[in-house]
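Example 3.2
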Amino acid sequence: MAVKIVTDTVADLPPSIVRDLGITVVPLVLRFGTDSYRDGIDISTEEFYKKLETSPSHPATSVPPPAAFAEAFDAAGGAGEEVLAIVLSSKLSGSFNSALQGKELARRARRVEVVDSGWAAMAEGFIVMQAARAAKAGAGLEEAREAARAAAGRVDFLAAFDTLEYLRRGGRIGAAAELLGSILRINPLIALRDGVVRPIGRTRSRAKAIDALVAFASGYSEIEEMAVESAACEQDADALVERLAGIHPKERILRTRMTPAIGCHTGPGLLVVAVLGTRASVLY
């Protein structure tokens, strides 16, 4: 029995991987005032960041409605296949609960299981990729789910921000609120721990922040996957890839641009290194 994998746009997967692994992606909804857009469908990444600079309204996101998940589940499992949905951390979004409700509405899929990845961005994406590769190799639903859970324990990312102001506005700042105040414009380092945003440190310059991202990646004895993600700071991301090429083959470093669903809460200037692998030392 074939297994189909479903995720959300926060997984930030490149279109080529989505296509090659047969993954179904459900878009979050972006809102600028009264205008709404389906992430990655009604507005491109380039259009979003231009609008972010000029719009008088701060953007917000809302979870895909249960009906959107149900439609995706039925489309993916329409031939009687089983469906495994892997979504972003339930501590950051209501997408997990919406997917559970969508599971109850689905009618054509033979069986649907929903997994809280506990992550976001390409850390979530790597979990989805591992499950999709297992499914493509013939794994059943339980095996694909275990592949996802195993990957969830081996992924991590470190993010460097220009400012925490957008996280504050969007209400996703969590424990990183302790870094607010007079240092809003100092380059903070942020990670996810137990599914929520946590402060890791701060740097006095962009160059030092990039040094910290390289040091993070250097703490792995084995790297299976690596990604560099950016939000409207392509030159910094390209320079970071060049430095990371001494740690992991450049041609195997995924370069992605932050989906607008993430950019709503981070703003421009975000740099992220995500890794799936075995850590040799704990830097953060």
